[in-house]
Give the backbone structure.
Amino acid sequence: MEKHEKLKIIAGVLLIISAITHVIQLFVVGFEWHDIGAAFYGSTYGILGILLIVVSGRNLSIMMKKLITLGGMIWPLIGGLLGLNRLINIELKIHGEINWFIIFHIIIDCIVIPICLYSLLKLRKNY
């Protein structure tokens, strides 16, 4: 298994952890509309994480590997931007407090995105 495939497994595990904490967040901070939306969006990270793990080292088509890896880059990028917006415009401005779950999720997004970018570049170079 190549280095970028091992890193993709790490990214997949991080996304699964993020999916779990997105749902746990509801029971800690509450069930406001933005919390429910974040939990729903974040729960899809679990599916993406499983796909990244399953694709790594498997003999699948290169196009499938590229698409899932691209999703591993784009989906957390969108989620991270939405989370940052939520942190600034809802949690800080309206509630006046920091939601540490959001910060944790943004950190995971900031780790997963470069891993998937690196892996995508390696897939393009190797095939």
